[in-house]
Structure formats: C-alpha cells, structure tokens
Design goal:
Strand content: 5-15%
Largest sheet: 2 strands, antiparallel
Structural class: mainly alpha
Number of strands: 2
Length: 97
C-alpha cells in the first residue's frame, strides 16, 4: 500500500505548479546580539573573590538566558491572522497563472 502511495504522489503532484517559498525574516533587535559579560578579572584566590566571581557569572548567565528567551519568543511568534509559523518562518505561496 505504501508503494502505491509513493508512486501516485509524484504523478498527482506533477500536474500542479510548484509553490513559491517566501521567507519572512523576523526583526530581532540589535541589542540581543551583544554579549553578556561574566567574570572578567584574574582567577579568584580567596573566598571573597570566589563569591564575586560566582555572582558575576550568575548575572552573565541570567542576562544570556533572558536574551535567548526573547529571541525564541520572537522566532516562535504567531504570524498574521494568528496562524502559527513553522520553525523556518516560511510559507508557500501558490503562483496563479
């Protein structure tokens, strides 16, 4: 049965024109592409420096995770008319002749 379906599909699709794919690029703000700083000083030696380094790294990770969440929200947003867009943000547009 699968073989029959695989053979019929090309025959049926040959009678129609190929859809034209149009990519809609989402606008991502430029500040989301800026790196988030972590700990940039010399390697910590004592407990105070270690705690400062851990806090700086945690803030950097929080900043980066927030930016990733924002970019994911932009890329996974709904399109016009509330339709969900696919992961490539592309839709077929059938050409009329």
């Amino acid at each position: 049965m699968r073989l029959c379906l695989l053979c019929c599909w090309p025959l049926l699709s040959a009678c129609t024109s190929d859809p034209v794919w149009v990519a809609f690029s989402p606008s991502v703000p430029a500040d989301l592409f800026q790196p988030c700083p972590g700990y940039l000083d010399l390697p910590p030696v004592n407990e105070g420096q270690i705690s400062d380094a851990l806090i700086a790294e945690a803030r950097g990770r929080d900043c980066a995770n927030g930016k990733l969440a924002t970019v994911a929200e932009i890329l996974n947003s709904t399109g016009p008319n509330g339709a969900e867009l696919n992961h490539l943000n592309m839709r077929p547009i059938h050409a009329t002749s």
